[in-house]
Amino acid sequence: MNGNFGDRLRKDWVRNRSLYFLVIPVLIFYLLFHYKPMYGAVIAFKDYTPALGVADSPWVGFANFARFFRSVYFGRLIKNTILLSVYNLIFGFPAPIILALLLNEVRNKQFKSITQTITYLPHFISLIVVTGMLTNFGMTTGLFNDIIAFFGG
Questions:
Q1: Is residue 100 part of a domain?
Q2: 3-class DSSP state for residue 46?
Q3: What is the pLDDT of residues 118-142, one digit of tens each?
Q4: What pLDDT, in 10s, does the model give residues 142-153?
């Protein structure tokens, strides 16, 4: 081989500089959204206290896992998790496909677009926001009670 590794790397950098610049945003994306959050997984091995933060909380090793596996709720939690996953596969997987096939057969464009908007809208609003809206609407001075009072309730 002619030249050392540093020379070959420098030549490759000069020759393919634009390609390396295209890779930089992808690397930043993966570092920020895939590798950085993994730092938080350390909490499972610590006696985490929010006031101390992740770095300063005392290390407990597998004590949290041992306590979870010995818990009287372990079997029930695992069973519920598996059942929820199976139910999600059975009911959650085919339902959107069936809805899409049914909407594909609808002739009224306006009804079709309104139905699509209503069914997709929950995917764009956070569950926290929806819960807050329902709480505010359900208050004694909220929207729901105002509507009930308007109709004589």
A1: no
A2: strand
A3: 888 877 777 788 788 777 777 777 6
A4: 677 778 888 887
